[in-house]
Amino acid sequence: MSEPSAEKRAGSVGRILDVLSGWMMHVAMFSLAMIMLLTAADAFARYVLNLPITGAVEFTGEYLLVALVFLALAYTYHEGVFVRVTFFVSKMPPGVRFVLDHIVQVGCALICIVLLYGTILQTQRVFTSKTTTNSSIGYVLWPAYAIVVIGLILLALMVTADVLKVRRGQSSLFKREKEIIEEE
To answer: pTM for the full model?
Structure first.
């Protein structure tokens, strides 16, 4: 039996990453729904019943918002909706743009890896020191840091996997940029 081609293997890995980013986006959307419900319930309890929900503000800020942002990063990247300034690059000749696209993609991959490494170290420190919140509940903070690590792992994998796709113009980092350049 012959080995699958590198492109096929990358394609199956890419599909797995896409499915994982979709699942994490659903968790992020659930986190948003929980933020809305918990905030509304806390406001109602605080101002109508004079009985605020203890720890609601801290839990929202230290867990739910973290999940909302970092679990949605990979999906946002996949959809090509990261904010970019393209007016300068769009005026470049195709050859220069090609080189710049590679430099930007590799730079983004390196930034993701450095952020991931630093966040893993921070998560380990918070976990071993058993750091807790300053709220009256005092729950541990390492799960929030772990959520950041999970989101950054998937983002780093997706951005790194796309380095080889820049040549074919299929990188998610430049997905929407092609549409913008074609409109001009």
So the answer is: 0.82
